[in-house]
Design goal:
By secondary structure, the chain is of the alpha/beta class. The chain has nine helices and twelve strands. It has helices spanning 22-33, 49-59, 83-88, 108-119, 137-148, 161-171, 231-238, 247-262, 270-277, and strands at 8-14, 37-43, 63-66, 80-81, 93-96, 102-105, 130-133, 154-158, 175-179, 192-195, 219-222, 242-244.
């Protein structure tokens, strides 16, 4: 449990970072828990990441989250990396030990899976083939989470086929890479399709896919949460598909970070979700 005589500090490092809703989420929990502390956005240029991470301990921080573009470079800076982060190839959370050692972990996969489970308690990863669109850090976390949950077939498609094939080669036989030109035909028979790219995010063009071959029972998910309903999710909903937006993935990472930093695990409440949604 955190020391009640100490003002607690945590934050999120990114470049840019002021758009992040993480401070809203974590400061809600500080207030809810009646704890003296704050969570701040830390705008850190890529070349300053190592110095910023090493400054966490002398400044009294318990830890921080990492967002674009720092998740992969942090692997080369922290002192220890847990198994999930090592397999995913990215760090989303850094915990500062009392001796100053920096411990890297990744809660992205957990957040994604917990979001699906909360939205649809009957969802199962082994219900049928899963199509993952994209081959960046988000895709790696999603694939890892799906495999941990027992997914038997993951179809991975990306604009740059080599990146998708690299993930398939690294992660194992459950994943098969497909060229971008086949993105629509591999929808056939899929039980779940996930957009892990930035396409559809505010300021970005919509994801160019055709959902006509997606089965009637299929579930569509997006890791983007600005806007809450991307053009991809809107198109799926209009075809009668169940959909899940990306906000829950962000929300459900938080309690795990708090457990590592402060020794407690706050709840993701309907009030918190409504608060964040009202800001989007």
């Amino acid at each position: 449990m955190a020391n009640p005589d100490r003002f607690l500090l945590a934050g999120v490092m990114g470049w840019p970072v002021m758009h992040s809703r993480s401070p809203m989420i974590h400061n809600y929990w500080f207030k809810q828990q009646g704890m003296a502390g704050t969570y701040v956005p830390l705008a850190i240029r890529p070349e300053g990441l190592a110095a910023a991470l090493r400054a966490l301990h002398p400044l009294g921080f318990s830890g921080c989250n990492l967002t674009i573009p720092h998740k992969q470079e942090a692997l080369n800076i922290v002192d220890e990396v847990d198994a999930a982060a090592r397999r995913i190839g990215a760090i989303s959370c850094v915990t500062v030990r009392p001796d100053g050692a920096l411990i890297g972990s990744n809660n992205d996969a957990f957040g994604f899976i917990r979001n699906l489970q909360q939205a649809f308690p009957d969802w199962r990863a082994d219900a049928g083939p899963v199509l993952v669109i994209g081959a960046g850090g988000g895709a790696r976390a999603v694939c890892y989470g799906l495999m941990e949950q027992g997914a038997q077939e993951i179809r991975l498609v990306n604009r740059h086929f080599e990146r998708a094939r690299e993930i398939a080669d690294e992660f194992g036989a459950q994943i098969r890479a497909y060229p971008w030109q086949q993105r629509n035909e591999v929808m056939a028979g899929a039980a779940l399709v996930i957009n892990t790219t930035s396409q559809g995010m505010v300021g970005q063009p919509a994801l160019e896919v055709d959902l006509d071959l997606l089965p009637e029972h299929a579930l569509a998910a997006d890791i983007v949460y600005t806007p809450l309903e991307t053009p991809f999710l809107k198109a799926a909903r209009q075809r009668g598909k169940r959909t899940v937006n990306g906000l829950g993935m962000l929300l459900h990472q938080g309690p795990r970070a708090w457990q590592a930093w402060f020794g407690i695990e706050p709840a993701v409440t309907a009030e918190l979700r409504a608060l964040v949604e009202s800001s989007l």
